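A.,

Following up on our hallway conversation. Structure tokens first:
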């Protein structure tokens, strides 16, 4: 029986990956930072998907967190990377608190399309807003860490890489604990039969709303990382294709393993980077073939390569989920 990785072992793994950044090539640091940021928001999609709902509009919270951080940074000169991540997470969470209860009553395709519509409404508002730079967006300054600035580009890239890895690692550990908790199992019950959950005295809408807010917090923090990495923000953060990439990562990873989300995100970034480098005219085709191959040969996601769920009389996806993480 696979009981999953112990949290202390996960902490050691996060520390090891962070220290590996000292020996990685410079181009890899930037790639890994983006992969970690994308994994963070995709992890939120996996958290929400455990209730049976998938958000196709996480770009709303991704852009919301990024724009909040950018505006505060330019207005008040706040450049600390940790503070920016916290602000992004708070902004995303506040948006989730407002929107979550409104759409928790929906499910399935209606839930997904409503989140997509809200994201595109936000995108349209950003494009028309001249105060926010319109379709061009605006730039922000280089991030610092606890008052320390980094003139060396290599050191600056490593700092951002380390903060991204540690943050996503903490989120992964928290998600693992959440999945194994009573609330995590209740989320699975909502996915299987929300009416029975109501009979048990639990509110299915409340459970969905809480998972939605958690996903929004992860998305807001991810938007802050993307802003710091690019030092520029524009309405493309909220566009539907941006949200689609995060759903792709969640589909590639599956919901059996938290670690698979980070592996899937890094694999997708590597395939995109190398195919764009060596096949600049057909890199979209290569990326599509990669996604198709994973879906065909690993229908349960990349996590199924190392996770062996216990098979028995229990209904798949219910009792076996406890043993399938991370």
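Then the amino acids I'd put at each of the 326 positions:
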């Amino acid at each position: 029986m696979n009981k999953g990785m112990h949290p202390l072992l996960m902490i050691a793994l996060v520390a090891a990956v962070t220290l590996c950044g000292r020996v990685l090539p410079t181009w890899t640091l930037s790639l890994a930072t983006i992969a970690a940021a994308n994994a963070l928001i995709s992890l939120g999609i996996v958290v929400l998907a455990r209730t049976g709902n998938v958000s196709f509009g996480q770009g709303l919270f991704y852009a919301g967190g990024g724009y909040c951080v950018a505006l505060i940074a330019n207005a008040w000169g706040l450049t600390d990377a940790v503070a920016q991540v916290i602000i992004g997470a708070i902004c995303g969470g506040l948006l989730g608190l407002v929107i979550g209860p409104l759409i928790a009553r929906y499910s399935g395709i209606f839930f997904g399309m409503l989140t997509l519509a809200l994201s595109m409404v936000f995108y349209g508002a950003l494009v028309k807003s001249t105060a926010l730079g319109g379709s061009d967006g605006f730039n922000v300054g280089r991030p610092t860490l606890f008052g320390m600035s980094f003139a060396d580009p290599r050191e600056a890239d490593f700092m951002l890489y380390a903060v991204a890895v540690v943050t996503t690692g903490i989120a992964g550990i928290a998600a693992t604990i959440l999945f194994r908790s009573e609330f995590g199992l209740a989320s699975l019950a909502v996915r299987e039969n929300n009416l029975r959950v109501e009979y048990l005295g639990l509110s299915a809408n409340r459970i969905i709303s809480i998972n939605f807010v958690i996903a929004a917090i992860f998305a807001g923090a991810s938007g802050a990382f993307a802003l710091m990495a690019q030092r520029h923000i524009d309405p493309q953060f909220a566009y539907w294709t941006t949200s689609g990439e995060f759903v792709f990562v969640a589909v590639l990873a599956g919901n059996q393993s938290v670690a698979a989300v980070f592996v899937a995100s890094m694999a997708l970034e590597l395939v995109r980077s190398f195919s764009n480098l060596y096949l600049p005219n057909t890199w979209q085709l290569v990326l599509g073939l990669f996604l198709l191959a994973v879906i065909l040969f690993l229908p349960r996601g990349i996590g199924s390569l190392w996770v062996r769920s216990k098979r028995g009389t229990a209904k798949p996806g219910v009792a076996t989920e406890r043993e399938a993480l991370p």
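Residues 309-326 have pLDDT under 50 and may be disordered. Curious whether your intuition agrees with the design.

B.
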